Amino acid sequence: MDRRAFIRALTASAFATASRAATAQQAGGVRHVGVLTAGVLPRIIPAAFVDELRERGWVEGQNLVFDRRGGDGRSERVPALAAELVQMKVDVIVSFGAVAGVALRDATTNLSHPGGNITGLSLIAPELAAKRLELIRELLPKATLIGELVDPANTYWQRVRPDYEQAFRAMRMQPLFVEVANPGDIAKAMAQIAGRRADALIVRGDPMFYANREQIGRLAVQHSLPTVAEDRRNAEAGTLMSYGPNIPATDRILASYIDRILRGAKPGDLAIAQPIRFEFVINMKTAKALGLTIPQLLLLRADELIQ
Fold first, then answer.
1. Integer angstrom CA distances of residue 198 from 53, 88, 266, 287
2. What pLDDT is recorded for position 160?
3. Which end of the chain is more exposed for a tag (fewer CB within 10 A), N or C?
4. What would the mean pLDDT of 228-237 be, rounded to a whole number?
């Protein structure tokens, strides 16, 4: 499968958008940037992204306008929002999160130059999934059955599931995928995973699970489930561990791509980037609540210990 399916995509509204962008820049016009996420408005544009654009000369309310669309944590709403932004013909669209990236890619497949208008940042999700399983194995050497919450409406998950299953096979672990159709089903799903005596739980960066990360953290402790998440903000909300890209650093990379496109670069000419910084966080309060002793080697490797 094309790696461009797995990106935080920067998607121009049409193949000609780059040349229109250069003309508008020379004329000193105000630029319109579409922003798409499956998350909640108005907390849609990260501070690091805005700061990087400002440092490069793009200031909201002066020479830049953000046209925001958010799915309120519901993946099934995102494709229609992506199509809406594409029809608006903004100068460039930036998506935050894999669900939004895939929706934008799909929304532009009928343009005259499909694929030539997409670039962005790959989150190398399958590779990181294997890393999280390794962390579980180091913490719990005898762990075999690993629970994982799944949003059936997340089309990105449907596409990468074989890669995730391969990661489990490589570690000689068995996945227990439990579908969660809406936030009201999270407690039931967590109880089901605990009832099957799963050794641990993995929480992916799905919009629904991120929006309900504090509830998941509490339930994980309640059910004695050591949990590893993708985002450090999950660990801050009570998850035992997190491992993934440093989000502010990746947001700055995205902003640099937006700047280049607004100044005339063609998206298709910009190589897919990868994260350059990763972070491993352990919540020691959660470890104590679970009655776990974290191995010294894990403690030494952690970028941060939340006390």
1. 44, 47, 48, 17
2. 81
3. C
4. 93
